[in-house]
């Protein structure tokens, strides 16, 4: 699996022992990885991507399709991606070679094939390719409509041959293409070639029209093509001028003509073929009679403007569906009064006298109804209406009174309000999980009839039930925290926590007042949950932390608010305690120029079942909270801002500690993220400092020119020496950062630990804080000890904090993370894990150590002396900076009981490094995120078991896995029925098959069937020589232990063209095999199985 457009990695030297060890602990390993045995002068080539699945809503959707037989749905995007969804867990992805917008999509019903049209008028046929029990979506064929010769022999302008509409003719594997020039071309689907002699030009249609209609302007582009459900030889053609024609493809003649004069937008053919419905640019629609009595219709039987009589916008699409119970549905988009509601995005649903105007908050892309499509059925009987919007997918149940919205099991808009932070909670207890699910069900109770009416149910999810439940928490700009089920492929919404109810906002009840002022006509109904506007930006959530054992959590926001909440199964009414902590400690010379604090509501407040606030701690000044941590066993919460950090006892509701970390010159921290005030003096001062530094450094460079030249010559001499001589890696020189840099007092991380700080004989509670200037503060805490281990609450008594240690890193690099390791080198357990026997108790006999990770290096200090033990200078060795750090447990694939804890690190270049703990030896090195994707790197969050999430768009999380044992990816089955004479076409495109997959995420097991139901023997895309070639080229065939743990499968996707540049001579191959065999023999004694 590779990222979009990533080439096959080249083989490179690999340290055999390191590969075996990494594989034994469950790390994904492959050729080209960075490890200790490789020469540092050899660059590590790009590695296969670790991405497994994408969660969320596709970014910038542009097209929609639905297969009524397989019950699967496809969404195309502006970037050329194709995503197909079925039942929860059934999904896979493809990507066009050209990053062009997908404008139309059409399924070949029941065949698992999809025809896409791009905005460059190219057609692409996608197929599901089955190989070795697995399958993926692959582009099989492509087609570009050739230019039509003009009068002077040259090709016609591209605009005349631009494809405007596509129709799959039900008679067979044939497609009709309507163009800008008014012609209709016919295409063979199996080969994507034009059918000679079948083209229908506008001149041929004009001959069937009356003379008075023929004169004047041209017919215009083909706007719509519709097929007859029961007579596939008839095609309904609609031209932009308003003319409608029923064309008989078998007889090559016009059967019926409807002389419309209003500009046409869309068409819909009635189920029995006796009526035709057209929608127009003036907001009207018309119903025409298609009886065989007359071949010419001058006027429609019904013509109406639903939201007239004032000028209205165009009705872009209209559907007519009849019902067995009587009446019919008319569903259309647009048509709103231009002056009053021209900016609304609406879909109107009309049945008999009932009209509902569905009002959405984003632009409508397309919509379809789920209804009966069998020709023998007399009625459509629509079950559901699916509307694809630019920012979400909404499904309505049309069989339940009131047409309620159906909750989506996936494709939920993660960005309903902009995501501001995220966190992952692994191994959630079953009791807490059930309580969260129950609270979520009480928030949006659904009718019993619509609880299981999700209409997109194709395929079967074959993935095993997850061994543990994982929660993904996302904080949002509107002050909400959303809980997602991240246990499997489908990211399912569970519960939404809102903190806005505790505060008085500036724009309170604005929406309700606006709705009350509106008239009853049109009958608007707000639908969907996408709401990009926040009442107050100060509500934005910056940090979240959840204790899964006590169901307590802390939510910190943009205006310095820190909320401690507790899960309750019933609604209640209570007041929330409010306390303030002044982090400046009355320091003179600082004036806060940023936003004001939020005003909390006072008195008894109603709270629904779920997480209810207990204590509100307000930081002063009200700057955004940059770090937070919670220790429920001690009843403490620590928080930090750009001014300092504080410690609060939420059990006694009293502050314990406040420490200011501001530098005397750090005035930028007083302006706040929402302030537009910029200090002119500060800017001038910084400018002069830069000029002064550049002059000084220039003089130093001139003075040291000769020495620099000597160093360069020495390096050239070293490069010319024999390569078998082992050399010390060259380290980059790191300049120390200035002590008075802006925002040097920002608190980056906070950490609680029960360890040795005062002396080596007594351990106790401690709190650690790391800042942007490389300072680390360690406090010894006096916490009353509970009488019984594992009790919910500690005894009453004041908590005291005493500064025990203060460490200043040499280069003043920002401290990213802090963790204490026990005597066995393992991280300390979470609160209540050890006391409730949920995890192994930490080793308190051996010496503890503290791991401090800065942006430039990792360093382990012994405790309590805080002396350096080991370190790894990442910036000096790799030239990158640390952005995210986490301690992850990697379980062995060969031995279920064995696991190791490693340090996972994400850099500013988008690479993921894994180091051993506490030795800090490099294990593996992966290229994960594009270095240009700054928001993706900033949003990354690691899990405890070697996975991670990061945003690839405002609405999508990409999931990746560093662990060979813990992988979440699609695994599903799909029953496909092929016509007897149908053949696979995928062999026609062989340039780079893997490029047709976006992110390489799908992995689908198929059961292809022929028309008689027997398995299809001709479904494989490989040739007779493919298997021997794969056996020769497979680098994992040498080492069975490594290949067993490798999950990056490229079987069947590597061709001779892909690897011919990397093939060596036979002598080199034999030498490499001998070396690998010798290394394997030496390493077998230490291989852990």
UniProtKB/TrEMBL annotation:
GO cellular component, one term: plasma membrane
Listed Pfam families: LLGL (PF08366)
Top-level taxon of origin: Eukaryota
WD repeat start and end residues: 471-485
GO terms assigned for molecular function: GTPase activator activity; myosin II binding; protein kinase binding
InterPro entries reported in the protein's UniProt record: Lethal2_giant, LLGL2, WD40/YVTN_repeat-like_dom_sf, WD40_repeat_dom_sf, WD40_rpt
Keywords attached to this entry: Exocytosis, Repeat, WD repeat
Family to which this protein belongs: Belongs to the WD repeat L(2)GL family.
PANTHER family in UniProt: LETHAL 2 GIANT LARVAE PROTEIN, LETHAL(2) GIANT LARVAE PROTEIN HOMOLOG 1
Protein known as: LLGL scribble cell polarity complex component 1
């Amino acid at each position: 699996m590779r990222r979009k457009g990533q080439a096959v990695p080249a083989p490179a030297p690999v340290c055999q022992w390191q590969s075996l060890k990494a594989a034994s602990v469950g790390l994904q390993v492959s050729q080209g990885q960075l490890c200790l045995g490789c020469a540092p002068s050899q660059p590590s080539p790009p590695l296969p991507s670790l991405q497994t699945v994408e969660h969320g809503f596709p970014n910038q959707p542009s097209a929609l399709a639905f297969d009524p037989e397989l019950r699967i749905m496809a969404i195309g995007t502006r970037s050329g991606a194709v995503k197909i969804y079925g039942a929860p867990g059934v999904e896979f992805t493809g990507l066009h070679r050209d990053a062009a917008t997908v404008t139309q999509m059409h399924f070949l019903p029941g065949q698992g094939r999809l025809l896409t049209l791009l905005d460059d008028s190219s057609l692409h046929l996608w197929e599901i390719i089955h190989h070795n029990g697995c399958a993926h979506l692959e582009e099989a064929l492509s087609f570009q409509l050739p230019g039509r010769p003009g009068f002077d022999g040259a090709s016609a302008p591209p605009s005349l041959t631009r494809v405007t509409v596509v129709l799959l003719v039900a008679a067979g594997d044939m497609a009709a293409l309507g163009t800008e020039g008014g012609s209709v071309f016919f295409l063979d689907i199996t080969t994507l070639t034009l059918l000679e002699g079948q083209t229908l030009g506008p001149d041929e249609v004009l001959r069937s029209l009356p003379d008075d209609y023929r004169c004047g302007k041209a017919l215009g582009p083909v706007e719509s093509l519709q097929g007859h459900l029961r007579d596939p030889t008839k095609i309904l053609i609609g031209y932009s001028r308003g003319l409608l024609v029923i064309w008989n493809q078998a007889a090559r003649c016009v059967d019926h003509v409807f002389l419309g004069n209003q500009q046409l937008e869309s068409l819909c053919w009635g189920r029995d073929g006796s009526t035709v419905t057209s929608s127009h640019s003036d907001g009207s629609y018309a119903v025409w009679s298609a009886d065989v009595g007359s071949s010419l219709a001058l006027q429609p039987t019904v013509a109406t403007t639903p939201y007239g009589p004032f000028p209205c916008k165009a009705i872009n699409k209209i559907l007519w569906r009849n019902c067995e119970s009587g009446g019919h549905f008319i569903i259309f988009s647009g048509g709103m009064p231009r002056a009053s509601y021209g900016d609304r995005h609406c879909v109107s649903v009309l049945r008999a006298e009932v009209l509902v105007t569905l009002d959405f908050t984003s632009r409508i892309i397309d919509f379809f109804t789920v209804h009966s499509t069998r020709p023998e059925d007399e009625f459509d009987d629509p079950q559901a209406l699916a509307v694809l919007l630019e920012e979400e997918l909404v499904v309505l149940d049309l069989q339940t009174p009131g047409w309620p919205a159906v909750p989506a099991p996936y494709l939920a808009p993660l960005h309903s309000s902009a995501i501001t932070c995220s966190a992952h909670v692994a191994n959630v207890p079953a009791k807490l999980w059930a309580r969260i699910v129950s609270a979520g069900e009480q928030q949006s109770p659904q009718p019993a009839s619509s609880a299981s009416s999700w209409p997109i149910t194709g395929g079967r999810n074959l993935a095993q039930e997850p061994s543990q439940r994982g929660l993904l928490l996302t904080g949002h700009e509107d002050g909400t925290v959303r809980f997602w089920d991240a246990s499997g492929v489908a990211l399912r919404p569970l519960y939404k926590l809102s903190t806005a109810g505790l505060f008085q906002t500036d724009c309170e009840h604005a929406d309700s007042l606006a709705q009350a002022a509106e008239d009853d006509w049109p009958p608007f109904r707000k639908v969907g949950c996408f709401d990009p506007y926040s009442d107050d930006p100060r509500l934005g959530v910056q940090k979240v932390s959840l204790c899964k054992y006590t169901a307590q959590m802390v939510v910190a926001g943009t205006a310095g608010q820190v909320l401690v909440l507790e899960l309750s199964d019933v609604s209640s009414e209570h007041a929330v305690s409010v306390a303030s902590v002044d982090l400046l400690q009355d320091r003179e010379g600082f004036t806060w120029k940023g936003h004001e604090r939020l005003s909390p509501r006072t008195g008894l407040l109603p709270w629904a079942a779920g997480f209810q606030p207990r204590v509100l701690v307000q930081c002063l000044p009200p700057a955004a909270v940059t770090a937070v941590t919670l220790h429920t066993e001690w009843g403490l919460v620590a928080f930090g801002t750009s001014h300092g950090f504080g410690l609060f006892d939420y059990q006694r509701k009293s502050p314990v500690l406040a420490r200011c970390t501001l530098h005397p010159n750090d005035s930028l921290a007083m302006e706040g993220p929402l302030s537009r005030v910029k200090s002119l003096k500060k800017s001038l001062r910084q400018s002069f400092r830069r000029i002064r530094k550049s002059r000084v450094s220039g003089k130093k460079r001139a003075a040291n020119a000769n020495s620099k030249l000597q160093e360069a010559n020495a390096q050239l001499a070293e490069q010319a020496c024999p390569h078998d001589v082992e050399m010390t890696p060259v380290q980059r020189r790191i300049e120390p950062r200035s002590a008075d840099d802006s925002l040097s007092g920002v608190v980056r991380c906070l950490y609680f630990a029960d360890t040795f700080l005062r002396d080596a004989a007594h351990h106790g509670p401690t709190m650690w804080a790391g800042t942007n200037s490389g300072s680390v503060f360690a406090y010894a805490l006096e916490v009353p000890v509970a009488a019984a281990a594992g009790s919910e609450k500690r005894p009453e008594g004041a908590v005291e904090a005493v500064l025990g240690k203060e460490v200043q890193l040499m280069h003043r690099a920002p401290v990213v993370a802090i963790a204490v390791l026990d005597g066995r080198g393992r991280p300390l357990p979470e609160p209540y894990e050890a006391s409730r026997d949920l995890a192994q108790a930490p080793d308190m006999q051996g010496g503890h150590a503290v791991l401090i990770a800065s942006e430039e290096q990792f360093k382990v200090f012994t405790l309590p002396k805080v002396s350096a033990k080991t370190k790894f200078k990442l910036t000096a060795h790799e030239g990158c900076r640390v952005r995210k750090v986490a301690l992850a447990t990697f379980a062995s694939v060969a031995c279920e009981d064995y696991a190791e804890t490693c340090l996972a690190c994400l850099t500013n270049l988008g690479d993921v490094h894994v180091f051993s703990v506490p030795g800090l030896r490099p294990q593996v090195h992966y290229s994960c995120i594009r270095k240009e994707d700054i928001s993706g790197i900033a949003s990354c969050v690691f899990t405890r078991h070697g996975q991670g999430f990061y945003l690839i768009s405002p609405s999508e999380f990409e999931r990746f896995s560093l662990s060979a044992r813990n992988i979440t990816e699609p695994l599903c089955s799909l029953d496909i029925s092929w016509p007897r004479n149908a053949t696979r076409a995928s062999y026609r495109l062989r340039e780079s098959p893997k490029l047709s997959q976006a992110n390489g995420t799908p992995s689908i097991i198929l059961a292809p069937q022929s028309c008689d139901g027997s398995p299809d023997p001709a479904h494989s895309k490989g040739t007779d020589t493919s298997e021997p070639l794969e056996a020769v080229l497979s680098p994992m065939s040498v080492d069975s232990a490594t290949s067993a743990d490798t999950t990056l499968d490229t079987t069947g996707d590597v061709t001779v063209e892909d690897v011919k540049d990397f093939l060596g001579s036979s002598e080199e191959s034999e030498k490499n095999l001998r070396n690998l065999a010798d290394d394997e023999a030496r390493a077998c004694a230490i291989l852990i199985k």
